[in-house]
Amino acid sequence: MKALAQVTAYRDAQEQIERLDGLESKHKDKCRDETRKISTKYWDMKRKIEDRECKEVRVIENRKEKYNAKCKLERVPYQKVINDMEEIFKLMDVHIDEEKNKFEFNNPYKEYIFVDTVVEDKYKAVWIYIKCNDKPKNKFSLMVKVGSIFQWKFADYHISSRVLKDLPTEAELRAWYKKNRNNIRWGWCSHMVFLNQILEEHASLEEKYEQAVEFYKDRRWQGAYWLHQKDIYEKHYHIDPYVMIYNGKDEYVEVLEMLLLLRTVDKKLPLLIGSIKSESGIRELERRLKGE
């Protein structure tokens, strides 16, 4: 009887486990359905809130874009004044460097075979060279290179070149150039159209340069130029400006020395010593200005 009771209890236990599993599964399905309903309910609510948020943010963004466009338009005349002045200051940079270094265009590309000089004056030079290339047949290239004292404006042309013709030998290239020399000089060669455009732009800049040189003879322009140089150091370098060293020279102090020199000549010229923060920097500047 004891063994039979144990078997009966075992079967009852199995039935209860199955019953509880069924109840648990039904409850799980019910909870899942309720969760889905809640998720759907709040997803719709969140979507409506997010849509409303996006619309309100878009209104603000549109207002910001319109305001930025308005400010950009208002900046145009002021930015033109600044750009024109900064171009004059850059041309004055060239003038000052030219006075110190005396630019020369003496066949700077020694690694190439020099052929001819198309244009050369105190502002620019256009050279014709021959160089070897990696082509299997036409192994030599005839190319044009441009040099300019306005390298900040024509840097790409200064360091790059245009190939005019590829031929098997140097002699053939020289003969071709001799035959087409006038066409190349006067821009009739399609490859040289870009050169005429450069030279036209260069001529315009040369006129502005001569004007800038005349401006620089006026002490008021000199004062404006050196104050601009001072601003460059103080606004664009995030360290004590007095430690700006180049080629063993303290450029920032040299700028201030120029302002002091102009000040001694004309007391009406403005002089702002600078924005050095550290006490050691100020003492060092004063020491250098005194020549100690």
Key features of this structure:
single chain, 292 residues, alpha+beta, four-stranded antiparallel beta sheet, two-stranded antiparallel ribbon, 7 helices, 6 strands, elongated
Notes on the structure:
There is one protein chain. The chain contains 7 helices and 6 strands; from the N terminus they run αβββαβαααββαα. It has 292 residues and is of the alpha+beta class. Among the domains are: 113-201, no CATH class; 218-289, no CATH class. The strands form 2 sheets. A 4-stranded antiparallel sheet has the order 1-2-3-4. Helix 1 (2-101) packs across helix 4 and helix 5 (219-236) runs antiparallel to helix 6. The protein is elongated, with a radius of gyration of 39 Å. It starts with a helix and ends with a helix. The model is unreliable at 241-249 and 270-278 (pLDDT under 50).
Briefly characterize the structure.
By secondary structure, the protein is of the alpha+beta class.
Would you list the SSEs in sequence order as H and E? Answer: HEEEHEHHHEEHH
Low-confidence stretches: 241-249, 270-278
Separate helix tally = 7
Outline type: elongated
- With strands numbered from the N-terminus, the spatial order across the biggest sheet is 1-2-3-4
